[in-house]
Design brief:
- It is built from ten helices and 15 strands.
- By secondary structure, it is of the alpha/beta class.
- It has two domains: about 160 residues, Alpha-Beta Complex (Quinone Oxidoreductase, Chain A, domain 1), CATH 3.90.180.10; about 150 residues, Rossmann fold.
- Strands 3, 4, 5, 6, 7, 14 and 15 form a seven-stranded mixed β-sheet that branches. A six-stranded parallel β-sheet has the order 10-9-8-11-12-13, sandwiched between helices.
- Strand 9, helix 5 and strand 10 form a beta-alpha-beta unit.
- The structure holds NADP nicotinamide-adenine-dinucleotide phosphate.
- NADP nicotinamide-adenine-dinucleotide phosphate binds next to helix 3, helix 4 and helix 10.
């Protein structure tokens, strides 16, 4: 059992309205407390890597202890997110000291866990690096995989458009659709991201929403319309796509990063009736609902990753002290690929 200080980031202030100061260091308070001891049915984890997801902003906006599945976060509570951690001490038979585990944990060096949570704690399979377990083979990759194969269902030759295409989910979703034979167009912010999509990730086209008219470019790159739209951002882009949806088109609603920071919900998509005219379908995708099938998703993605057919783009920050700044990168568009933060190396634990 380690002794010493547990460094933590606590929620100090709920996020402000867009666009200024949306989220940053001012929302958190640094604290130091003793390392806790696990009770029966608990284990002590050392957190090694953090994953950052735009929905962490939503977690910061409310607290409802009666909502057992998703209670949000009280002011003064330790900020939370998906992590890869190492088991240091365990009073749960299924976990042993030294195990690397993937689960929902705190922005702190050490956390107590009972193995349950919004995502159940699972062991990282041998040979899978922590960054990959959080990125391409984590919830990020699983949202992309099941969103594409179960909801979007691209057929060879169909046109597939994805937003936040150079982000964690978007970059994997677009590449999977390409592997399955679709023509893939990505929408991303900035020249470097667009160049990566076409030059490295094999997309057929990219639209820079910072400098280009997205509607005009969609019409130019998808002259026959769009069969599948994998939506990570919501907002005005969704309306632009609805206008161009083909017969029996599908929209995979994966996320709405453009609206997470808005306290007053924006008006709904004004072009939704376009779905009637094309027999279209718009369907939500919740990766968590596929949790029992994550091993199947990982088994499909792993050979593509190993062969280099699927590129995993990661944006890695280092150091617990940088967690708030790293989260902020998601909402300014500074992040490029899956945003991660490395906190510590796994320790050598005697007897393992
Ligand atoms: N449904 C599920 O089960 C599930 C699971 C995981 C993630 N998600 C959702 O999927 C989406 C993508 O997640 P991710 O983890 O891969 O994040 P991500 O796309 O890597 O998020 C960061 C990127 O989002 C874009 N962005 C930020 N603010 C924006 C805005 N106001 N309007 C448009 N784009 C904006 C920026 O890219 P550009 O610079 O290119 O604009 C930024 O670099 C998120 O909405 C997330 O919540 C859903």
């Amino acid at each position: 059992m380690p002794s010493g200080i547990n460094r933590q980031w606590l929620l100090a202030q709920r996020p402000e309205e867009l666009p200024d100061g949306l989220v940053g260091e001012h929302n958190f308070r640094w604290a130091e407390s003793p390392i806790p001891s696990p009770a029966d049915g608990q284990m002590l984890l050392r957190n090694l890597w953090f994953s950052f997801d735009p929905t962490q902003l939503l977690l910061m906006t409310y607290y409802d202890e009666t909502n057992l599945e998703s209670p949000g976060l009280p002011l003064g509570g330790v900020m939370r997110g998906l992590t890869v951690s190492q088991v240091i001490e365990s009073r749960i038979p299924a976990f042993r000291p030294g195990d690397l585990v993937h689960g929902y944990s705190g922005w702190e060096d050490f956390s107590l866990s009972d193995g349950h949570g919004y995502f159940e704690t699972t062991k990282v399979p041998p040979g899978i690096a922590p960054n990959v377990a959080l990125g391409a083979l984590g919830v990020t990759g699983m949202a992309a995989y099941f969103g594409v194969v179960e909801v979007g269902k691209p057929q060879p030759g169909e046109t597939f458009v994805v937003s936040a295409a150079a982000g964690g989910v978007g970059s994997i979703a677009g590449q999977i659709a390409k592997i399955l034979g679709a023509r893939v167009i990505g929408i991303a912010g900035g020249k470097a991201k667009c160049a990566w999509l076409t030059d490295e990730a094999g997309f057929d086209g990219a639209i820079d929403h910072h400098t280009e008219d997205v509607g005009e470019r969609l019409s130019a790159l998808c002259p026959d319309g769009i069969d599948i739209y994998f939506d990570n951002v919501g907002g005005a882009l969704l309306d632009q796509v609805l206008e161009r949806l083909r017969s029996h088109g599908r929209i995979v609603l994966c996320g709405g990063t453009a609206r997470y920071g808005q306290k007053v919900p924006p008006p709904g998509p004004s072009n939704y009736l376009a779905l009637v005219m094309v027999n279209g379908r718009m369907e939500g995708l919740l990766a968590r609902d596929y949790a029992a099938r994550f091993p199947e998703g990982a088994a499909a993605l792993l050979p593509w990753l190993r062969s280099g057919q699927l590129k995993s783009k990661e944006d890695v920050a280092v150091g617990l002290e940088n967690a708030p700044k790293t989260l902020a990168r998601l909402y300014t568009g500074a992040s490029f690929g899956k945003q991660l933060l490395k906190v510590a190396e796994p320790a050598v634990i005697s007897g393992t």
